[in-house]
Design a protein that fits this description.
Blueprint (H helix, E strand, L loop, with lengths): L1 E4 L18 E6 L9 E5 L7 E3 L20 E8 L8 H4 L9 E5 L20 H10 L3 E4 L13 H7 L4 E4 L9 E6 L10 E3 L3 E4 L2
Parallel strand pairs: 5-6, 6-7, 7-8
Antiparallel strand pairs: 1-11, 2-3, 4-8, 4-10, 5-9, 9-11
Length: 209
């Protein structure tokens, strides 16, 4: 069995969408200062680093972190390489073996951005037509290797609206470099936040050998 950790580190070098909501870690107690134990405070947003988007993020009345089916974040997943030089179109997805109920993770070659503290607004994302194609295919979840399935200048968020509006969850900020194309078991469970619109996840892919 081989386990691939596809989660970005939560540190000062972690980018945040639009440069907002950067995580902080504050040491409240430390052994080196004579305290009895180490104890830290972590301050993050619900969309910090490698994270899940659930329908409530954009859809009023949509499923929240505490009531969405965990099948969106655990189970068989397909990793596809799509080296991006522009936003991902339907024509990029159509040749892929995408089936109803799939969890698909798109390795576009952007994982290195997840180690750069400065937010990169020129990342590649899904076009509206690509998102609508995935809705037609009736997948469960789509993941991508930067902080949004929508382009930064997409003010109406068409990919989010299409996907989350059809109960398709998204995983954003994945670290897929060095993960070969193939089929794996994914675990990327969101925190159980009542009414939560998203959550950081510890995402791993397990390959049986």
């Amino acid at each position: 069995m081989k386990i691939y950790d596809i989660t970005a580190e939560i540190s000062e070098n972690l980018p945040s969408y639009g440069g907002k909501g950067r995580p902080t870690v504050t040491e409240l107690m430390q052994l080196k200062n004579g305290d009895f134990y180490n104890f830290s405070q972590l301050k993050i947003t619900t969309h910090t680093g490698t994270h899940a988007d659930v329908p409530l993020h954009f859809i009023d009345g949509g499923a929240a972190c505490d009531d969405i089916s965990l099948e969106h974040f655990y189970g068989r997943a397909k990793v596809f390489d799509i080296p991006a030089t522009s936003h991902i179109c339907k024509s990029d997805l159509a040749p892929l073996n995408i089936e109803e109920g799939d969890i698909i993770l798109l390795n576009t070659g952007q994982s290195h951005y997840m180690r750069q503290a400065e937010f990169n607004p020129d990342y590649f994302a899904l076009t509206k037509e690509a998102a609508e194609y995935l809705v037609e295919k009736k997948i469960k979840t789509v993941g991508i290797d930067y902080l949004s399935v929508d382009a930064y200048d997409a003010t109406d968020f068409p990919a989010h609206m299409a996907l989350l509006g059809n109960n398709i969850a998204t995983l954003e900020g994945l670290v897929l470099e060095n993960v070969p194309e193939g089929t794996y078991t994914l675990s990327a469970l969101p925190l159980k936040i009542p009414g939560g619109n998203g959550s950081p996840v510890r995402a791993v892919l397990v390959q049986s050998q």
